[in-house]
Specification:
The protein contains 3 helices and no strands. It has 84 residues and is mainly alpha-helical.
């Protein structure tokens, strides 16, 4: 029951961050919002893995969090070079 409530709240947070990502004009705030959106999706997948009691889904969570981290790091470097 608690895991279902947590998944619902994470879905609401994901929708809020998608709207924030679309509405914000500043590139730095967009990057922060995209990073937070990635974290919320990883958390949702982790809670779903606990709900289903599946370790395979946790492997997917680990891979997606790594991809999100690398993408954020690459975007920070790219934006940092263009701002200077």
């Amino acid at each position: 029951m608690i895991l279902k409530i947590t998944m619902g709240l994470l879905l609401v947070a994901i929708v809020i961050f998608v709207f924030r990502l679309v509405l914000i004009r500043n590139i730095h705030d967009k990057l922060l919002s995209l990073n937070l959106l990635t974290i919320k999706v990883v958390l949702l997948l982790a809670v779903y893995a606990a709900y289903e009691e599946s370790t395979f889904i946790l492997d997917i969570v680990l891979a997606s969090s790594l991809v999100g981290f690398i993408a954020t790091a690459i975007l920070i470097v790219y934006i940092g070079r263009n701002d200077a």
